[in-house]
Design a protein that fits this description.
alpha/beta; Rossmann fold; seven-stranded mixed beta sheet; 8 helices; 7 strands
């Protein structure tokens, strides 16, 4: 049986607006209100002279780097997935602490951290988020797969794509963040 591209596209098309967005208290926000809050968090971090920091696990690692490059048009950005950055801290004996170590070295309370994960369960990411919570920066999580993943409540804002397909989840994360970037650029941020 072959995949029907029309059905596939229809299934995908509804996902962005079905994304569940919740605040740090677990209060579900409407999609438009959640998007507005996400945009305001990025704008506020920039106003505080903070950096927009992206990191993700596979397959979200590549997306983190690409988004960091794109958002550099409106604010200072860093991708913790940058290979040069990763090679600088690769002396760690425990690779599960790779992001946590970077967070301790470069993240400040003024920063906004975008954590991208298809399933929200990678210890590598979770350890980085724990370090970010210690620093006191703003954290926004982007996950999917299962609604009980550990990252789903870790941020000031948490976005969950109700899908199992890693491709669908990553693309929805990208669409939402691209929309934030376009909104910031339109409004001269």
């Amino acid at each position: 049986m072959s995949l029907n591209p029309t059905d596939y596209s229809r299934r995908f098309a509804e996902l962005p607006i079905r994304t569940v967005i919740a605040d740090e208290k677990g209060q579900i926000l409407g999609f438009d209100d959640g998007f507005k809050r996400l945009t305001e968090l990025v704008r506020a971090g920039s106003a505080r002279k903070g950096k927009l920091i992206f990191f993700g696990d596979s397959p979200s690692a590549g997306l983190a780097g690409m988004l960091s490059n794109s958002f550099s048009a409106v604010c200072p950005t860093i991708s913790l997935n940058d290979t040069v950055r990763l090679s600088a801290v690769n002396e760690l004996s425990d690779l599960q602490q790779l992001y946590a170590r970077q967070v301790k070295l470069i993240v400040t309370p003024a920063d906004v951290m975008m954590v991208l994960s298809v399933n929200g369960r990678a210890p590598l990411l979770l350890n980085g988020v724990i370090s970010a919570l210690d620093v006191g920066c703003t954290i926004v999580t982007f996950t999917g797969d299962a609604p009980d993943n550990p990252l789903i409540t870790a941020g000031s804002l948490n976005l969950y794509v109700p899908a199992r397909s890693a491709g669908f989840i990553s693309i929805v994360h990208h669409i939402i963040l691209q929309c934030v970037l376009d909104s910031l650029m339109e409004n001269g941020n």
